[in-house]
Amino acid sequence: MSVVLFKAILIVIIFLISLTVAAYSTYAERKIAAFLQDRIGPDRAGPFGLLQPVADGVKMFLKEEIIPTVSDKLLFIAGPSIFMLTALMTSAVIPWGKPLEIGGKLYALQVADINIGILYVLGVVSLGVYGIMIGGWASNNKYALLGAIRASSQMISYELAMGMSVISILLMTDGSLSLNAIVDSQKGMNWNVFYQPVAFIVFLVCAFAETNRTPFDLPESESELIGGFNTEYSSMKLGLYLFGEYINMFISSAIIACLFFGGYNFPGIDYLGTILPGNIVSIISVGVLFGKIFFFIFFFMWVRWTIPRFRYDQLMRLGWQVLMPIAIINVLVTGAILTFFGN
What angle do CA 96, 98, 103 make, to 5 degrees? Predict the structure, then answer.
């Protein structure tokens, strides 16, 4: 099998997995909310309501397509497309597991192992705001525009603290920007979360803000802005925004697992490689990474149904006056410790 063919198959598989996880995250969201509120949740479409995401998808496709006559039609269509595209692109540099051996050759379970992987992630994530901003502006609706402005200012504010928290991780891995190298440096239980707990907390909070999840869901707060930046959207264009948000949550969980919790590594992975075939260990490593991802997806949902929404001034204050100074101080302390006491 050629490398190009393997990469093409891997891209298709990651694309399908991302859509499946996003679809069933909506089901999990409802079930977790129901559990926390002492309700049953979806239970009509299929056994235990497992076909509810399928029913929702069919509904999205069959709903009437409405484009406001006063909108900028080209940008109105481009907004959700850009948002969905950038959400899917971030998965390209994530190492999903140990390499597979096929026909005597090793194939990495990673679409692109570029040496600036974490910069790529931060860059693509920052482009996602254009999808929201364009969609809100093109709608020609004051509520949509206000939601888009909130989203852009919120993402710009929290991206800075997120980037500063990542710098401390890069210092711990000899400056490597490759996600694969960062994961390899955490073999066993040598996880970065034990060495950089402050960076983890800052990154986690910023991840909530970047994905517009409660308590940072000000851009789409229905009690104030009807629906926020997607107020005028219907049918599958609305579906792209909703799916993109859940894909962002899935990818954010994967990045958190790779940066702070060893990615696909687990205690005893090297020992298993001596008693089991390499491909079996690779499959187990993929399962371990997805176990960590699903835990963080659950955490995202748990927080949504537990913590109330911030006021906007509180949101901005937290980003600029709390997280940003903490992230900068953490980088300075990490650099000082590595300089004077070594690794």
Answer: 115
